[in-house]
Write a structure and sequence with these properties.
The protein has 182 residues and is of the alpha+beta class. It has helices at residues 25-38, 130-143, 154-159, 161-168, and strands at residues 3-4, 43-45, 55-59, 74-94, 104-117, 123-129, 178-179. The strands form two sheets. It has a five-stranded antiparallel sheet, with helices on both faces. The structure holds nickel (II) ion.
Length: 182
């Protein structure tokens, strides 16, 4: 499926919860994984394929050489709620399939506690830290209508404004399918 990029209004909506009766859920879930792997992402949220629902998938294995906590970290998060953010703020570089060509350092708290349902709609209440926590926070932002560039300083944001504008009109070099705002 094409990835919706910066400027598309669906990326700015607070996404709605979904239930086990969601139409064609298992097909959608499979499509999310496929779209994520095809575009070499480590995470993908439903708004990025145009669906404003509280669903995201993460597979951190490809980064596990640099971040051991990501080994075997492959999960589906439904109706997630981050209930606690603690720990020191940590600065790390982030990118996003909806913001091709942009990488920026983002400051986030190191540790979170999150309640969510897995792909079988079974409830979980877990604590994550390190890069796993960061990826979850990044994907969670998507279902809250936020993007990682929202965390940048006004100066930093001004410096990348040209790049952001270029994305909205498709002036980007990507090797996966994208959907432009218009
Ligand atoms: Ni993203």
């Amino acid at each position: 499926m094409p990835v919706y990029v910066y400027g598309h209004p669906v990326l700015r909506k607070v996404a709605k919860e979904l239930g086990p009766d969601y139409e064609n859920f298992s097909e959608l879930h499979t499509n999310m994984w496929e779209t994520m792997y095809q575009s070499d992402g480590v995470g993908l949220a439903a708004p990025q394929i145009g669906l404003s629902i509280r669903l995201f998938v993460i597979d951190g294995n490809s980064l596990s050489d640099d971040f051991p906590e990501l080994k075997a970290f492959k999960k589906t998060f439904i109706n997630a709620q981050i209930v606690e953010k603690v720990g020191d703020k940590v600065l790390e570089s982030e990118g996003c399939l909806s913001l091709p060509g942009i990488r920026e350092d983002v400051s986030r708290p190191d540790r979170i506690r999150i309640k969510y349902l897995d792909e079988n709609f079974e409830p979980h209440d877990e604590v994550y830290q390190g890069f796993a926590s960061r990826i979850i926070q990044h994907e969670y932002d998507h279902i809250e209508g936020k993007l990682f560039v929202d965390h940048l300083s006004p100066l930093r944001r001004r410096l990348i404004k040209g790049k952001l504008n270029a994305i909205t009109v498709g002036k980007v070099d990507v090797d996966y399918r994208i959907r432009l705002p218009k």
